[in-house]
Amino acid sequence: MTAKKKLKTSAMIASIAAEGQPTTAAPFGHALVEAAASNDKIVGMSADLAKYTDLHIFGNEYPDRFYQMGMAEQLLMSAGAGMAREGFIPFVTTYSVFASRRAYDFIAMAIAEEKLNVKIVCALPGLTTGYGPSHQATEDVAIFRGMPNLTIIDPCDAIDIQQSVQAMVDYDGPVYMRLLRGKVPNVLDRFDDYRFEIGKAKRLIEGGDALIISSGLMTMRAVEAADELKEKGVAVTVVHCPTIKPLDEETILAEVRRHTGKPVFVAENHSVVGGLGESIASLLMRNDVQAQFQQIGLPDEFLDAGALPTLHDRYGISTQEVVKKVNSSLA
Amino acid sequence: MSASLSRVEPGDLEKLKRHAYRIRRNALLMGEVQGQGYVGQALGVADVLAVAYFRHLKFRADDPEWEGRDRFLLSIGHYAIALYAALIEAGIVSEDEIENYGSDNSILPMSGMAAYTPGMEITGGSLGHGLGIGVGMALGLKRKSSDSFIYNLLSDGELNEGSTWEAAASASHWKLNNLIAIVDVNDQQADDKSSTVLAYEPIADKWTAFGWETWRVNGNDLEELVQAFDAAVSSESDKPRVIICDTLMGRGVPLLEARDKTHFIRVDENEWSLALAQLDDVYGIK
């Protein structure tokens, strides 16, 4: 057996794009600049992570509308609440781990309880850094799903992010978005009819042999897996569900019912505990829908540090792992 | 004190004294509805609220959300009874609500929440939120070129919360001279004396070191309060301002002043009328 070359730990903010994959640089930052041109209520605030959440693009364009709040996430959330109280639309940014673990009470009581119009945009959701558990927000959705009034968005790619910025501006209320930043893959542009809408799941690929319902970067994996499986004669339906809360129950129930007797996967860049998978499982049970239900997600563990491709393979969220799971369910 | 003292007219003090008396009375009447509560704090902070609401705060009783108002943020939600007493005295909340205090469907819940009560700007209760919200609102007011002030009433216990100090650092970083913090120092929190739970002195030095213009006064002395508030509001400095008020819990009702554990007090049914009578005595009201 030949020794495999060891991959290096991925940078803090490693791109999840594969080599040669088309990408867009900093889609969030540029989309916010565009939205802010026609809405002077938009302000940006960050807890010393503007550069790492692409908010610096906005800060450079609108320096007087950007607030550096220092490495103080509790303050970031409460000050964001104060800005919203005065009629502004603050986009506040940090990493998902810090928003969910450290600033929870401030988001709950200062923002969500009063339905304030704060957009919480956080980088490094799930397994998108090789830095280990301090930076891997593998349970952020589980933490936030229990919070009333909070909309949770898990966009797939640059197109989703661009469209979701304007959707967040148009929506009056608190939103948590799991941000992909830096060079973000373009995936959804091949689906002509696709349009991001808060609260809507959309079918991207019609198959029939199996159903994958996915959010975030796992929709990219699902699409890639469906392409690969199609070449082997396996037709997979892919439904993208970028709003985790409120869940598009109607679409999901209809899709699962259409796939009665077929394997149904829920794929997410998140722990199998408390995320989209369990949310859909409870939806199915409440509605007495039987399904060959399986989860594709991260294990209920603190994950290793290392190179992202290695870790995505190790924890079962790479395209190849998705292909394997679908194949074995059909075997 | 870091500014010259303002001259206080005796008539002004008499007026404020009457407001403080009625704030205390309203608090006792609400306390009686529940038979218990944070009455000690309300009595202790009544003079501070009288000076804030009836000397400085801009508000419209019939339009509590008037854009030009000063914003008074109560981060210490359990002091709601104190603020309700002041809001009733200010005519923002009807006196008729006293009998519903803390009861089902009341607009005056035990812990202050923005959605329930006119004039209650924020939902407090989870301590350490108010000053950070105040920072955001003060930034927002500056964006709007508003000349309104943000007041935030904190307690000595609330200074335990690290988030308060995140906000304190930020307020001076952003030169928020439209933000006035008021710290009620009554040396009591849930488990014990505040100084025993987590030693807080030297409070004034801490705020000064964080870049705030700082006053420390006897929070039950109307004249000292007026001078500190006047100075804080009229200061030309670009610093945020803090007025540290040493207060006595139960102030104005000797039987409650004498209580040992005053954070959450229970008062026997027959003691309420005695408490009200003692308050009248203290104020020389027959």
UniProtKB/TrEMBL annotation, chain A:
| This protein's record includes keyword DNA-binding | no
At the top level, the lineage of the source is Bacteria
Presence of keyword Membrane: no
Domain Transketolase-like pyrimidine-binding, residue spans? 22-187
Q: Which UniProt keywords apply?
A: Thiamine pyrophosphate
* Alphabetized PANTHER family for the sequence: PYRUVATE DEHYDROGENASE E1 COMPONENT, TRANSKETOLASE-LIKE PYRIMIDINE-BINDING DOMAIN-CONTAINING PROTEIN
Q: What is this protein called?
A: Transketolase
Organism of provenance: Litchfieldella qijiaojingensis
From TrEMBL, chain B:
What is its cofactor?
thiamine diphosphate
* Presence of the UniProt keyword Aminoacyl-tRNA synthetase in the record: no
Task: Output the Pfam families linked to this UniProt entry.
Answer: Transketolase_N
- Coiled coil located at which positions? none
Say which domain of life the source belongs to.
Bacteria
Query: Where does the record place the Transketolase N-terminal domain?
Result: 32-271
Keywords from UniProt, A to Z, are: Thiamine pyrophosphate
**Family per UniProt?**
Belongs to the transketolase family.
In Swiss-Prot or TrEMBL terms, this protein is called Transketolase
Name the gene that codes for it: y4mO
